[in-house]
Amino acid sequence: MLRYDAGMSKPESSPSARQFPAVSASKSDCSGPDCCSPGVDRRSFFRLAGFGAASAATFQPLSAAQLDQSRTRGVPTETSRLLQDPAWPTLRAYDREHLDRLAMPIGGVGTGCLSLMGNGALRDWEVVNRPAKGFTPVTSGAAPFFAIWYDNGEARAARVLEGPLPSAGFEGSHGSEDPTHNLPRFSNAEFLAAWPLGRLELSDPALPLRVSLKAFSPFIPTDADASGWPMAVLRYEVTNLSATPLRVSIAGTLPNFVGADGWTSERDWKGDRYHTGAIANRNQPAFRSPGAEGVFMDSEGVSEDAEAWGSLALAALGVEPDAGKLSFRGGWTDNQWGGAILDFWDDFTADGMLDERPSRGPAPVASVAHLESVPAGATEAFTFAIAWHFPNRYAWNVAEERRTGEDLIGNHYTTRFADAWDVLRRAAERLPELERRTVAFVSDFLSTPLPATVKEAALFNASTLVTQTCFRTPDGNFFGWEGTADSKGCCHGSCTHVWNYEQTTAFLFGDLSARMRDVEFNHATDERGLMSFRVHLPLSRAREFGKPAADGQMGCIMKAYRDWQLSGETAALERMWPSIKRALAFCWIKKGWDADRDGVMEGAQHNTMDVEYYGPNPQMGFWYLGALRAAEEMAKHLGDDAFASSCRSLFDRGSAWIDANLFNGEYYVHRVEPPGDASKVAPELLVGMGARDLSNPDFQLATGCLVDQLAGQYMAHLCGLGYLAKRENIQATLRSILKYNYRESLANHFNSMRSFALGNEKALLMADYPKERPARPFPYWSEVMTGFEYTAAVGMLQEEMTEEGITCISNIRDRYDGRKRSPFDEAECGHHYARAMAAWAAVPALTGFHYSAVQREMKLSVTEGKHFFSTGYAFGTCTVTREGNATAISLAVREGELPLETVQINRARFTRGGKPPMRAGEVWKAVLGPPPLAG
Q: What pLDDT was estimated at residue 913?
């Protein structure tokens, strides 16, 4: 296993190109020009002499020092101090030039979220059961915002608690369209983040104070419910920079938008769209619970079965009751000619307190103000929380206009709380504990010597779990879109061939990952073994999609093995085992993926490229080999020796054949074998998105060098299943991906599809064709997508190409820099794309981490220092030191429960001697003599 601090070397030069091997007679009896690649009809190809070599750039990995510098370049002294703050750990700082696109999701796992923008604005209110990019509820001239007022006895002033407007906020047909454009603001802003912790620093030379906003929602791996609070916590820490005391007030404002979700709209007199849906909403100010006081918002007019029906709450937390420090508004005045915001601003700036106004309009505005005295040089904290509760989630596979009560599936989080105020009432009691546990997770993770860019990719993509990409139903099951469009989920069904790649859920929330396996095998797999790769809801309709994906189905078998190893839940495996066997045996149906049962897929293979491949190819081939190995291991453990033997035989034959017939000396290629017509294909294998002419099919990989051709191998290493093909061929393939797919700049790159990387950005292309290219390759061949890049990069880390893999990850994160794109939104087919959560896989790859709850064994390949581990059911740190010639470890469990008998650090093996599982807060120390630490 590799170590991230081991010696690193430049990639070896790729082998010289060799001719594609001849067709094996044992594989096919076909002959003639219309048979199969490499004999595919040459009319379907055109030659581009030197096509790949001319456009590819020589890959030069960054050094470790350069990578560290790239995360902190140009950081001022004060920012460096904040980065070292142990009370609020942060990882990445964004200066004024890198704030415009920054949008950090704040919310609970499976609850939806809102976005804290780089300048402190609150946007993208995606809390009402659907994506809502760009949706900011604005009524009566009010948007969600927080403002500060101060009085030093001689002067008073107020500002919205936001930095400068983003550049896009300056122009519009009738002036700025930014929701808070009309409020005075701070001149300087800087954002620091280590998701789920965000920190905004606001300052202005004209003001005698500075403000630090600390924003978060609880996020505690291993505890999905503790991480599933539908709320955002905003703590404004105000420091008095002057020599005199200040009276300071912070007011939060939130329109009651119950009934509006960013979907329904009408046109105003200019023809511009504005959001509608609120009907007879009501605000109830001075709502009070121990530790929380604010405004509760619901509706008397929105239908109780509407998707956007529910409640909201805005409160100040931790304020001494009856101390005269809080004031409220349940409504704003009439907004004729800007009257509402004028009245609010005059009222607030007069004395920092709010006078009540009658509730007006269908969506009245609520405000809460908190007034304190801040001594000279002191800092005072003002803590607010926003909560939501929208129970009516509807099935994702039914169009809005056709929904009925039978399509209502609900939300898990709304079964835990009565309404939005109940969220805040209970959060106020537990917030110190929830914050402590959240900070402890981030601190543990950041304290380890992983490269900063790897930590950033892993943490920041974990934010997808709180976006509308993911949700939980009342039974606790966890589901995910592929991603989200601006106002709708994008590609429903927890799509197996997309969710195959991500590792964040399994290693942080094992119970949620296990629930996905239960749905896939116990609900979405039919009696024949066909797994619908998009699950319909409610679960009674799980199989209605009725189409399998070759890579998706095989990946689910590997994930079943991974999740069983991480959980040790053999009883759950036994319940799924008949379906797992059927899912693998489905490969062998007549006219199926591997109808001749030789360990190689040849049939129509629908896959994550949204088309069918025909003939053997590495992408499906390695997923299949990995599934065979996983099934073999599960079968042996369950005593199903005959099935285990069958899987092993198929694996051995398939692995040897792929090496002999698909490896061209540099990488693995696709040997296209047209079926001729649809009668030669099992009808359920044709999804309807691929080639129409099956005698000469379009949309094939063919001889291309595919960025994720080793995805199955990437997964096999994470599962501890070993090599699926010859090690030297795997390593040569990764070097070829760098040789052919890497681009130092995309300025001169032609792309026939979508662009997720542009200009002078560095990236790995989906595919390159060094010699010849099909006239119409698979759809995404010229694109760049981060989930696939992470898969290749982690593959490099697994093969000790450490600098190369980290550089590829750094190139991705440099594209999501806050200036061009949000650091928290890696898109593919939609925002917050699930596949990008493959980034977490770099963590076990770099630490050589592998854990088996079945064997009660943990392995790490590391040198001295503190190292983070997470199993999905426990996380913590393992500190390794030298004591003379001995190796000492101190293993601390921060959260969860860890069955553990042995720990292997390189070649040193420590035994606990049959002790019970370690639990949160426990530390185990042990010392072992030679062999030495370095393995």
A: 87
User: How far is residue 619's CA from residue 668's CA, in Å, rounded to a whole number?
Assistant: 9
Query: Distance from CA of residue 491 to its chain's centroid?
Result: 16
Sequential DSSP letters for 517-542: HHHHHHTSB-TTSPBPSS--SSGGGT
Put residue 222 in one of left, alpha, beta given phi > 0 → left and psi -120 to 50 → alpha. left
Q: Which residues contact 145 (CB under 8 A, 6 or more apart)?
A: 121, 122, 160, 161, 162, 179, 180, 183, 252, 253
pLDDT at res. 65: 63
The residue type at 354: L
What sections of 820-932 are H helices per DSSP? 842-847
Q: How far apart are CA 565 and CA 560, in angstroms?
A: 9
Two tokens, residue 554: 């095989």
Check pLDDT > 80 for residue 48. no
Q: How far apart are the first and last CA of the chain?
A: 9
Could you count the other beta carbons within 10 Å of the beta carbon of residue 633? Answer: 19
Please give the Cα distance from 255 to 332 (Å, whole number): 10
Tokens of 295: 């405004």
Record the tokens describing residue 898, joined without a space.
Answer: 């860890």
Q: Is residue 779 over pLDDT 50?
A: yes
Distance from CA of residue 624 to its chain's centroid?
26
Residue recorded with tokens 């046109």: 267
| The model scores a pTM over 0.85 | yes
The pLDDT value given to residue 930: 67
State pLDDT tens for residues 304-348.
999 999 999 999 999 998 889 999 999 999 898 999 999 999 999
Strand partners, 81: none
User: 913 near 870, Cβ under 8 Å?
Assistant: no
Q: How many CA atoms lie within 13 A of 258 on its CB side?
A: 35
- 3-state DSSP call for residue 442? helix
Ramachandran sector of residue 476 (left: φ over 0; alpha: ψ -120 to 50; beta: rest): left
**What kind and span of H or E run contains 235?**
strand 231-240
Q: How confident is residue 46, by pLDDT bands cut at 50, 70 and 90?
A: very low
Residues in the chain, overall count: 935
| Radius of gyration from C-alpha coordinates of the chain | 29
Cβ(491)–Cβ(829) below 8 Å: yes
Instruction: Tell me how many helices (H) and strands (E) the chain has.
Output: 19, 40
Collapsing DSSP to helix, strand or coil, 546 comes out as: coil
Measure the CA–CA gap between 935 and 905, rounded to whole angstroms.
Answer: 8
pLDDT, averaged across the chain? 92
- Look-up: residue for tokens 């996380």? 875
Q: What number is the average pLDDT over the span 362-384? A: 97
CA angle 655, 660, 661 (to 5 degrees): 100
